[in-house]
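ok here's thioredoxin-dependent peroxiredoxin:
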Amino acid sequence: MALMVPGMHLPPLCAPAYVNGQILPSVSLSSLSNEGLNWTCLVFYAHDFDPVNGGSVISECYRRHQAFSILGCSIVLCSTDSCYAHLAWMKALKALGTIASATIPMLGDTSHMVARACGMLDTCKGVARTGLVLVDPALSVHKVIVSKEGFHAGLDAALRHLTASTGH
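and the structure:
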């Protein structure tokens, strides 16, 4: 599928997930939005054990997690790694002191279904591109950002859009 554009609707998506220290065999994207939080920022990256993509993207999402929560938005991470890779990566980040606990859900998109549906799959490499898809409570896409470099700017843009859209 081509890259999603604002106005499109996110299809119902299910995938295995690493959530709060547990591996769940299949969860819907809509069920991962924390209670009371209606928007979802689906963040894509290639691999956990890639210090450039996985390390910086995940760390930046954890750093900004509270800012998104205040605006009523859940962050959900997604790579084409398995949930077992997510588990190992989060243990490594905790051991390094990079994060205190694994509170952001991580989809294990080994089937490539989620990345493909969102137009974020690099089909030549078989991995997710680095970027994000911001959706409202009705699963309508508001912002799509694909970033080769400077992923932090994409999170800034998503936060600005949320601030304007939610009136916070």
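+1. The chain is about 35% helix and 25% strand.
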